Every structure is written in C-alpha cells, then in structure tokens.
C-alpha cells in the first residue's frame, strides 16, 4: 500500500517535472524529446488508473506519433532549405 | 490523500504549467507542446475522476480515447499550417517574401 | 503574445513577454489552479453511476470490452464524428492529384532519389518489425472486442510501422494516387452506410440489432482502422516531405 502510493507520488511528480523541463528547455529539439518522455510517463499513469485501452493508445499515438510529427515539422521549420536538400532523409 | 485526488491535483498543476507555456512560449512548436500538455492534463483529470474505488467508469475512457486521436490530428494540422506559412511567406518578421 | 510567433530556432525574440507580465500570469494561473482543486474537492461524488449502467447493458452490445462497447455501440455517434474530423484534416493536408501518377503503386522502392546509402541494420530490422507491427495491429483490432485494444490502437500501431518504414529511407509512399483517397474515406463511408442501412431496417440510426451487433462492430472497426492508419501516416509523410526537392513529391 505504502509502495503504491509512493509510486503514484513519484509518477505525478515526474510528469510535472518533465512538463516544466520540456517547456523551459533551451533548444526545441530537447523540448520535443522531453515531451515524448512525458507521454511515456503518462502511459504509466493511465495503467495505474486502470485505463488499459487509453494506455495503449497513448503509447502509440501520444508518445510515438506526436513525437514523430513534431520532429518532422521541426526539421522542416528550423533548417534552411539548403540544409534540407542535403540531408533529405532521417529526422537528424 | 487518495490516488484519485493525487492525480486530480497533478492534472490541474499540469494544466496550469501548460497554460503558462502556451502564453509565454514564442516558438510555434513549443506552443503546440504546451497545448498537448494541457490535453494530457485534461485526460488525467477525466481518468482520475472515472475511478470510484474498485469500479472504473468506461465512459470517460472512451472520451479520452477519442480525445487523443483528435488531439494528434489537430497538432498535425497546426504544424502543417505553420510549415505552409514558413514555406510560402519565407520568414515572419519583416523579412521580405522570397 | 500570439501575434509574433517564432518559426525558426534562435530568431530575435521580440514576441517575448516582460517579467512583470509573466509573474502576474503565474499568479493568475496559480489562483485558477487552486480554485479548480477546491472545486473538485467540494464536488463530491459523481452523481449518476454510469459504470453500473454500462455493466448492466454490456450483454446487449455484442462485445465484452466496456470501452469498445461505449465507443462503437452506446456512443458510436461520437466515434462517427471523430472519423469525420480525421477525414477533414486529411482532406486539408492531402497532396493534389497528379496526372502522371495513374499506374503508380502505393508503396514502392525508392532507388533513384535517395542520395544516402540506406542503413543496412535499420533495413534488416524493418524487415522483421513492419510485418510484426501489422500483425500486432490486427491482433489489437480482433482482441478489442473483449479485452483492451480496438480500432484506434490498431490504427496507431500500423501507422507507426509505416512511419518506421518511411524513416528507413528505402521505401516511399505515393500519396497522390486515388487509392489513398478511397482508403482514407472508407471508414466514414462504411460507418455511414451501416448507420443508414440500420436506420432503414430497424428505424434507429446507430442502435444495432443485438444478433448482428458484434459483426457490425467488427466491420465498422476494420474499415475505420484502415482509414485512421492511412490518415495518420499521410499526416506524417506530408509533414516530413513538404519541402523535399521537387520531382519526388509534388510541392
């Protein structure tokens, strides 16, 4: 019982900490990676809250696909076109 | 403090952080991350209130599932619009369009 | 605050707020959060126990997983509209159709345009990972009837496989072909057809007859999975290749 409530506290604290870090990171890339970590931690919280369906969807969509979308858009936005033609595959 | 209350409070704190981020951040991707964090916060409050001791209410779960998919679609649309602005307008502040 | 947005990294940031504004904003948000916590604490129990109602009617829904039952039977109107929302986003992002893409296949091997040598380890991993992910998607779709899983999870896993494939650099998707349009609207079409047929036969739009409920749910779920997977993959591919050199992609 005490271990469970400790785990809940750690997860809740970790999510809040990651949100702060993600929004205050100096580089956009760091923000995106920290947001993906936040999504994975949120998945664990959904499991703790007995929401298995939501946990599966969050792991696949919230953490995986949103991260991929953000990284793809970041690469297009933050580099000049000359860079883009040179490294035309892989999300650096 | 029960588990539901803990996650409710954490969700509200997360919502506040996200809201602060949306207003303060200047980079478009950071703003979108903040909006997504607000989404996670809302889901957390919904799922935490869905628990009544041992029984779990499936209706908030279905709502959250719908919400996750719509959130990713909205994020993608915003990113795509930002890319269009950047590609077509070429720069935002006073830079002449190419 | 919302008028001066940054699109590149390390731009001159004239849109930033002053410290005073930030402190005031933080105080306002803390006040809002405190009042929200107070509101939730004083709200007490949720009044009608929906969980019991769902458990009571679960036998009538045709599936054993309460979340799937809510999503695709009790509240399937929401899901229908959600598929429509996704289709709207897909229509917004869809690339224009090219006349040259008439006989093209959806997935083709890209040898000519890629200047990089594809990573052999990644390619060998993908050879195993992609079929496995598609299998997992099918499993999640099937098992969603009575345990955690369902159309959205399956679609997300399949779209994830597609994302991995397109990051491998060796394969490309032809998003201009008309099959993509068909695949991404198929879910909504089948959903609406089922609803309309149901309305025609039984008189209610989305209240499935008990005998055929599980078949109808599986039918709708399967096509919805195909649609959502296509749309999610389309979103990623369009964001990834919007500024690629012309010739590969129309933009």
What is shown here, in short?
The complex is a heterotrimer of chains A (92), B (98) and C (251). Chain A has a domain of 56 residues.
Spatially, the strands of the biggest sheet of chain B line up as: 1-2
Q: Could you tell me how far the N terminus lies from the C terminus of chain B, measured between alpha carbons in angstroms? A: 59 Å
Uncertain segments of chain C are 245-251
C-alpha end-to-end distance of chain C: 31 Å
- The total domain count of chain C is 2
Protein traits:
heterotrimer, A: 92 residues, mainly alpha, C: 251 residues, two-stranded antiparallel ribbon, globular, disordered C terminus
What does this structure look like?
The complex is a heterotrimer of chains A (92), B (98) and C (251). With 92 residues, chain A is an all-alpha fold. Chain A has helices spanning 2-24, 28-48, 52-78, 81-86. Chain A has a domain at 26-81. The longest helix of chain A is centred in the C-terminal third of the chain and has 27 residues, at 52-78. Chain B has one domain: Helix Hairpins, CATH 1.10.287. Chain B contains three helices and two strands. Chain B has helices at 3-24, 28-49, 58-89; strands at residues 51-52, 55-56. Chain B has a two-stranded antiparallel sheet with strand order 1-2. The longest helix of chain B has 32 residues, at 58-89. Mean pLDDT of chain B is 85; it is low at 91-98. Chain C is an all-alpha fold and 251 residues long. Chain C has two domains: 1-44; 50-241, no CATH class. Chain C is built from eight helices and two strands; from the N terminus they run H-H-H-H-E-H-H-E-H-H. Chain C has helices at 19-43, 50-61, 66-74, 76-93, 120-143, 151-168, 178-202, 213-241, and strands at 107-109, 171-173. The longest helix of chain C has 29 residues, at 213-241.
């Amino acid at each position: 019982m005490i271990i469970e409530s400790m785990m809940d506290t750690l997860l809740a604290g970790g999510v809040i900490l990651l949100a702060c870090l993600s929004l205050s990171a100096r580089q956009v890339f760091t923000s995106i990676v920290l947001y993906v970590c936040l999504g994975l931690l949120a998945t664990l919280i959904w499991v703790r809250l007995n929401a298995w369906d939501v946990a599966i969807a969050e792991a696949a969509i919230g953490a995986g696909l949103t991260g991929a979308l953000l990284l793809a858009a970041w690469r297009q936005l933050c580099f000049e076109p000359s860079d883009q033609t040179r490294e035309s595959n892989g999300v650096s | 403090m029960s588990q539901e209350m803990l996650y409710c409070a954490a969700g509200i704190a997360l919502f506040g952080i996200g809201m602060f981020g949306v207003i303060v951040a200047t980079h478009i991707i950071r703003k979108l991350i903040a909006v997504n964090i607000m989404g996670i916060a809302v889901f957390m409050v919904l799922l935490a209130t869905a628990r009544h001791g041992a029984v779990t209410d499936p209706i908030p779960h279905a709502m959250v599932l719908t919400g996750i998919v719509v959130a990713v679609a909205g994020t993608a649309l915003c990113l795509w619009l930002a890319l269009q602005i950047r590609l077509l307008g070429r720069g935002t502040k006073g830079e002449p369009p190419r | 605050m919302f008028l001066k947005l940054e699109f590149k990294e390390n731009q001159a940031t004239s849109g930033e707020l002053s410290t005073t504004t930030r402190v005031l904003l933080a105080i306002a948000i803390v006040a809002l959060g405190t009042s929200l916590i107070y509101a939730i604490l004083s709200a007490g129990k949720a009044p009608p126990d929906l969980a019991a109602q769902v458990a009571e009617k679960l036998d009538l829904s045709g599936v054993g997983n309460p979340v799937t039952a809510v999503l695709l039977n009790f509240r399937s109107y929401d899901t229908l509209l959600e598929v429509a929302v996704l289709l709207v986003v897909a229509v917004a992002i869809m690339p224009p159709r090219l006349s040259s893409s008439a006989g093209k296949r959806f997935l083709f091997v890209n040898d000519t345009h890629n200047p990089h040598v594809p990573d052999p380890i990644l390619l060998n991993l993908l050879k195993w990972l992609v079929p496995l992910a598609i299998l997992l998607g099918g499993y999640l779709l099937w098992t969603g009837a009575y345990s955690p899983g369902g159309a959205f999870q399956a679609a997300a896993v399949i779209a994830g496989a597609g994302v991995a494939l397109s990051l491998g650099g060796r394969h490309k998707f032809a998003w201009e072909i008309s099959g993509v349009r068909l695949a991404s609207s198929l879910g909504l079409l089948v959903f609406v057809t089922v609803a309309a047929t149901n309305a025609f036969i039984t008189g209610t739009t989305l209240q499935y007859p008990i005998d055929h409920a599980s078949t109808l749910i599986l039918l709708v779920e399967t096509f919805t999975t195909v649609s959502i997977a296509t749309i999610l993959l389309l979103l990623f591919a369009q964001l990834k290749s919007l500024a690629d050199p012309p010739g590969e992609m129309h933009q």
